[in-house]
TrEMBL record:
<dbReference type="Pfam" id="PF08009">
    <property type="entry name" value="CDP-OH_P_tran_2"/>
</dbReference>
<dbReference type="InterPro" id="IPR048254">
    <property type="entry name" value="CDP_ALCOHOL_P_TRANSF_CS"/>
</dbReference>
<dbReference type="GO" id="GO:0003882">
    <property type="term" value="F:CDP-diacylglycerol-serine O-phosphatidyltransferase activity"/>
</dbReference>
<keyword id="KW-1208">Phospholipid metabolism</keyword>
<feature type="transmembrane region" description="Helical">
    <location>
        <begin position="217"/>
        <end position="233"/>
    </location>
</feature>
<keyword id="KW-0808">Transferase</keyword>
<protein>
    <recommendedName>
        <fullName>CDP-diacylglycerol--serine O-phosphatidyltransferase</fullName>
        <ecNumber>2.7.8.8</ecNumber>
    </recommendedName>
</protein>
<keyword id="KW-0594">Phospholipid biosynthesis</keyword>
<dbReference type="InterPro" id="IPR043130">
    <property type="entry name" value="CDP-OH_PTrfase_TM_dom"/>
</dbReference>
<feature type="transmembrane region" description="Helical">
    <location>
        <begin position="154"/>
        <end position="176"/>
    </location>
</feature>
<dbReference type="GO" id="GO:0008654">
    <property type="term" value="P:phospholipid biosynthetic process"/>
</dbReference>
<feature type="transmembrane region" description="Helical">
    <location>
        <begin position="116"/>
        <end position="134"/>
    </location>
</feature>
<comment type="similarity">
    <text>Belongs to the CDP-alcohol phosphatidyltransferase class-I family.</text>
</comment>
<dbReference type="Pfam" id="PF01066">
    <property type="entry name" value="CDP-OH_P_transf"/>
</dbReference>
<feature type="transmembrane region" description="Helical">
    <location>
        <begin position="182"/>
        <end position="205"/>
    </location>
</feature>
<keyword id="KW-0443">Lipid metabolism</keyword>
<keyword id="KW-0812">Transmembrane</keyword>
Amino acid sequence: METPFPPFEPNGPDDSARGPRLREIPLRLVFPNLITILAICAGLTGIRLAFENRYELAVSMVLVAAFLDGIDGRVARLMKATSKFGAQMDSLADIVNFGVAPALVVYVFALDQARSLGWIAALIYAIAAGLRLARFNVMAERENKASWQSEYFVGVPAPAGAMLVLLPVYLGFLGLATDRTFAYVSSIYTVVIAFLLISRLPVWSGKSEGNRLRRDLVLPMMLGVVLYVALLMSYTWEVMVFTVAAYLISLPFGARKWRRKYGTLTIEEPGIGDDDIGRHI
């Protein structure tokens, strides 16, 4: 029987075994994490809607999840609310929203008719997205970053991969017959996107501080963005197909620009290879 009295401690109470004291947390530290949680909820809801055959809502929820997942980090930096906890939450949201959710939605919509081959393609994509995100996190933790990291991605980024892998769903919404042949072709396409994610293909990011826009092109560019959003709202799936095609066409141009500058076709830079993988497993 336990005694109600605390044990005798000759050297005083040992506070080292106690957890940290509860303290008040500023609301600005919580807000970015709430966005991340909403992104996870949207991605998981997209999976549920896909299994309920409500495909348009399912794809919309996955795209909303990708949008929320893309802005939570920026909101955290703007509010000076970055934290290790938030970084871990963001990584969890990334694998759900950019890997698992798109893979399951495209599987339920199209790849299911290819039976085991379709499921294998979905698995390959989901695992490739996880590997891509792990490599990104490893590179982000490096103290000395290469100068090209502000201008190029190593492989297609996971958010773009989620948009690309849903192409069979967009085409199905436009009336393309989703028969078994379509399922097999979609499975091959899904595997191709998976390999683009984990490849060392230099993908231009457009984030370099050296990129400048001529003053006379600012207003036309803003008008073009407004036009794109208006068309996206009115002709959603046609615009998404066009966006996917334009993105895929742009990949060789980014690689050619890298080759002219650095003389290689792929990014082979010490410090992001097998040694990093071995250290972080």
